Amino acid sequence: MPGPRRDRPALLLLLGVLLAADLYFHLWPRARRELAAGVPGCPCRRRPLPAAPPLSSRPASALRRLFAHPLYRPAAPPGPAELLLPVRETLRYYRRKAARWNRRHKLYREELNLTSPVAPLTLRPEASWLQFHLGITRDGLYPRSSPVVDRLLRDMQDFTTISADYSQDEKALMGACDCTKIVKPSGVHLKLVLRFQDFGKAMFKPMRQKREEETPEDVFYFVDFQRHNAEIAAFHLDRILDFRRVPPTVGRLINITKEILEVTKNEILQSVFFVSPASNVCFFAKCPYMCKTEYAVCGNPHLLEGSLSAFLPSLNLAPRLSIPNPWIRSYSFDGKEEWEVNPLYCDTVREIYPYSNGNRLLNIVDMAIFDFLIGNMDRHHYEMFTKFGDDGFLLHLDNARGFGRHSHDEISILAPLSQCCTIKRTTLLRLQLLAEPEYRLSDVMRESLLQDPLAPILTEPHLLALDRRLQLILKAVRKCIDTYGEAKVVANDTTQPEAPASDRVKLTT
Fold first, then answer.
1. I want to staple 354 with a disulfide (CB 3.0 to 4.6 A). Which of 77, 382, 390, 461 is the partner?
2. E runs forming strands in 219-374
3. Which residues are catalytic?
């Protein structure tokens, strides 16, 4: 049996020394501080930490401050809004459409001998896309503060796709539908209609150009790429300007194999998928021109960025007019329109119905300001709901050719403003507010775009270009006021009370 180890007492002595040192240098000073805290008049008594300020008193974000500004609040408690759609008729219509889709889907599966059970699609009245449709009023596509829009953006980002098809534009080019209902078919870009598990639909535009790339100077606007991030940014800018005329749009990474190819019933769409030499899945549009494998979009190997824009109500429920823009550009390489050569062109427009009275011309100026900020030269038509008549708001659709060149400001886009010298008072006040350092347009846009899952959406030069272009707009307004006077230039379209002095925005600068 081995004897006791001689080094054990030394080890115990070392441990005792370490314990005593810990008590003396760490535990005893802490105990003294704790005891002294309760002794009256002790100079070393600990002071309680200041309580955290309540959430309501903490500094708000620039975007939240902007939307809390009096200019973004209604002047009085809103009365019954003039809705675009009747609730009961709308629910009946979409229930019939859902039932028809279920029947067709069942027949399609039977033709393919697919026997696995699939639950029929049910229409839920609380679905975000349906609530979005039912919330459209004469004032805009959605209320200023709308939780439905935020929920719709999340649903379009997360929900499973159950079908994919070409848009009506591409079908028109292939002779598959009535072209008279199409604004202007184009095969330069590629877009698809995706349907989700809640029966909602969105227009999908894939990524064609990287964010840091600029459109070359020699490229004409009508053959420019359409950019998915421009669609996303246009929605955020439209909301910041309080126009609310762009459908809710969000970015999403799409698995083009599982979420497009495997769910589409369109044989033509199925036929344009292929695998590239780099083993990436690609597809292209099927149309008479610019629609070849050279213009395909490819995943990495399956995932592809894109924008999803919520569909507007069916034309059967809410008919829309498609009207040529009076300041339409020439879509040829050498042609010029009258407004491009005649500085008095607006005098002619003012004599033509419906621009001779009402708000139509003012709405055109709003649209021109919006297009100038995003750099969109491709506004050949505009649409509006027929129910709201001549003074209804204009829909700002198809904004994918915006944000192409941050280094160039296309002043000709502002022709409706500079030639007609008229602007809504509310529009001018909000533009001036967004030029203030506290609400700088680039800052609120940067913050708003960070909410998108594909952020960053715009590069910093594009954001700074917004501030520069805003100053050019205000400069054009000042020039008009200096020439014709404020009373003739600024149209009073509101009865809002004056903002508090601390938040007041000067009308003229």
1. 390
2. 249-255, 273-275, 281-283, 297-298, 303-310, 320-324
3. 378
